[in-house]
Write a structure and sequence with these properties.
Elements lengths: L1 E4 L11 H10 L4 E4 L11 H4 L3 E5 L10 E5 L28 H36 L5 E3 L9 E6 L4 H8 L20 H5 L4 H5 L1 E5 L6 H21 L1
Parallel strand pairs: 1-2, 2-3
Antiparallel strand pairs: 3-4, 5-6, 6-7
Helix pairs in contact: 3-7, 4-7
């Protein structure tokens, strides 16, 4: 089995899932991808990509929290999935328990809305994200983390010669940011993603991950650039 993310949640980097699926097939293995971060943000086609299984979550598309879906390729014969919750045999015996109808409907509706606005919203976020990065990279000692092939809404920037914890505390007074994955925003350890990319511990700790969304405006980006610039300069002056 080969497992890979469609897009990294910290840097936004897009991964070559079609090539990964072909690699798995060449070795008689199956390919599973975590597309939670990518669904609703970029075009995805399970048939074209050749994936065997794909996971997605409603909350990343402004749907209800705690609701997810697993795509399994039709006719997929290689393994028998084992239910983690047994009992009544609902959902083809893969997940027993009374169906969460409001959650299921919410996921479907969120998917429909995201797909309808995907092209226009992705372009809007791409432009805002680029403006944000251009502004932040004017700060001395800053660097962008991530390739050119990224999700349109994720910004990851590091700052040299500054302590990460004071930076995060100050910035979080007025902006919701993290130094790595949003789900581990209180961790005192550097991001394993950034250290694997070659960043030293201090620089990885002094990193801000910002994620733009449908409510983000041009004015918000201007404020973020100004506020982060002032905080970084203040902390460097004080050190």
């Amino acid at each position: 089995m080969l497992v890979g993310m469609t897009a990294n949640n910290e840097t936004g980097n897009l991964h070559p899932i079609k090539e990964m699926a072909e690699m798995a097939k060449a070795h008689d293995a199956f390919f599973v991808t975590d597309a939670v971060q990518a669904v609703g943000k970029i075009p995805l086609n399970v048939k074209d990509s050749g994936v065997d299984m794909l996971a997605l979550s409603a909350h990343k598309m402004y749907g209800p929290k705690g609701v997810a879906a697993l795509y399994i390729r039709k006719g997929f014969p290689k393994i028998d999935l084992v239910a983690q919750i047994t009992g009544g045999g609902q959902e083809m015996g893969l997940r027993s328990g009374t169906l969460n109808v409001p959650g299921i409907v919410g996921l479907g509706k969120a998917s429909s809305i995201s797909l309808k606005h995907q092209v226009a919203e992705s372009e809007r976020l791409f432009n805002l994200r680029n403006k944000l990065e251009i502004g932040l990279l004017k700060i001395t000692g800053s660097q962008r983390n991530g390739s050119s092939e990224r999700l349109p809404h994720v910004c990851n920037v590091s700052f040299k010669d500054i302590l990460g914890k004071p930076l995060l505390i100050r910035i979080n007074k007025k902006l919701a940011v993290s130094s790595g994955a949003a789900c581990s925003s209180i961790s005192d350890k550097p991001s394993h993603v950034l250290t694997a990319m070659g960043l030293d511990k201090a620089t990885a700790m002094a990193t801000l991950r910002l994620s733009l969304g449908r409510s983000t405006t041009d004015k918000d980006v201007d404020f973020a650039i100004d506020y982060i610039s002032r905080v970084v300069n203040d902390l460097r002056t004080a050190s």
